[in-house]
Amino acid sequence: MTKQSKQLVLALWGMARPLIMLSVVHVYVAGTLIARAYGHPLNVAAFVCGLIVLLLVALSIHYTNEYADYETDAITQRTLFSGGSGILPAGIVPRSVALWAAWITLGMGSVLVVVAIALGALSAAVLPVLAIGAWGGWMYSLPPLKLAWRGWGELDNALLGGIVLSLYGYVVQSDQFDWRVVLGCLPFTGLAFLNLLATTWVDRRADAQVGKRTLATRWSPTRLRRLYTVVALLSFGLLVLLHDHVLPPEVIAASLLALPFVAWGILRYTRTEAPHHSVFAMLTLLSAQMLAWIVV
Prior knowledge:
Helices cover 74% and strands 0% of the residues. The protein is mainly α. The chain has one domain: Orthogonal Bundle (Farnesyl Diphosphate Synthase), CATH 1.10.600. The radius of gyration is 19 Å and the shape is globular. 47% of the residues are buried.
């Protein structure tokens, strides 16, 4: 492998944001566990095939974000969870590489899912869920919608990561759509939204300079804190409303483990640059619920 080829591979790996890709797998597995708890036996072949397709589509979305956020990533303060990979601003590869990589990985994922459906490895039911996820992910950063630049990115990303991704994992196993999965994922979606509020807060100054109008750049700290608190209370209120009809008691009880981190976030959001409180709250809720679904 030549030095240039090695540099390209390392750049593509960095722009893939491996840590965030790991969280994508995490949520996909959660959807799989929900399907198992709802009585659908684990289909290992479908799980593996669905995961490969998902990783390719998720890669394409990450590459579009790297491409679109080139300017803001060049001037922001990066953390493990925000500010991009830093690959493009560092000049390691041309900016166009990210866009080409996005198209290639999206094409590969699209071809693979069609072949998998044709061969019977996956059900056709996965196609609309995957298409919604891909479309929403691309429109987060790119025209014509550029949702992240117009104050809708946080909601878009939360819905994709909180509902669509889990639903995809469920449909891969069950071959069918179930509204209980959508409703049951709402509390986690709320915490995913809080996580996005916290991570975009870190980037607010850089985003404002390049015209990226996230909620953190549009709203005052006081208004943002109120929104954070309302969404946090609503997320845990939904646990009560969904009791028994959608979420088993074990899942609800396990979800309470995230409460300390949510309380920490309510106290610290906009008062600190670090988004860790919201990241830990989201991951704790997801992990605790996954363990509870295994028990169920």
